[in-house]
Amino acid sequence: MNQVFKTTILLAISLLLSAASEVGELAPGSTTSEISEGDQLQGTWKLLAAKWNADTKQYADNIMYKIYTQHRFATIFFDPATNAFSGGGGGTYTVTGNQVTEHIEYFSFDTSAVGSAQTFHFNIKDGIFHQSGTLNTQKYPNYQIHEFYERAEPGIGTLREKHPLAGVWNIEEASYGGKKSDLAARYGKVIKIITPTYFYGVFFN
Q: From the CB of residue 35, how many other CB atoms can be counted at a distance below 10 Å?
């Protein structure tokens, strides 16, 4: 079971939070004017089409969402026919010009990528986000990617005043059926991202 959590468990769960603190997002009382207008990546994106090396069909029947908050990113693949989780990854990111560097904290497709920094080119035009470049991991060396996303919703930072729960939360403790569970001690890092429309939970060690 520990190995399962080390590789990544992504859960869509509703948690009763008894202790939670925000991670790297807007502090209470912050205003939207503190968010950089130049950071167009913030928001939730839905994959329209992709090419991974020569493969354009690998996840043709799956749905992929990619979320960028002010400092973090997360991806999730799932099969809408079975509602089964297919894989995902995430971590923190930085932007320099038209390049985004993703610092990977978890990646279910190849755990050797954890701890690495992957830099890609990106362009956003007419609501379409195009990410391209080369992924380099042990399992996927020199792996060329081209991904095209449409915006599903704007960045949560710009909507924070209207949606007080929106943000990135570090979940430390939860209660299930009246029984408390110290999630951080049991599983490692537990993060929940809440946007106005979506929520995403990840357990990783």
A: 17
Phi and psi, residue 79, nearest 5°: -95, 115
CATH code where residue 178 lies: 2.40.128.490
In the numeric block, the tokens 């449409």 are attached to: 150
| Tally of domains in the chain | 1
**pLDDT tens by residue, 117-139:** 999 999 999 989 999 999 999 99
Q: What is the pTM of this model?
A: 0.72
Q: In one letter, which amino acid is 70?
A: Q
* Residues 6 or more apart whose Cβ sits within 8 Å of residue 118: 101, 102, 104, 133, 135, 136
Condensed to tens digits (0 to 9), the pLDDT of residues 29-54 reads 444 344 443 478 888 999 998 888 87
The domain containing residue 96 runs over which residues? 2-32+40-204
Two tokens, residue 162: 């209207």
How far apart are alpha carbons 140 and 122 in whole angstroms? 20
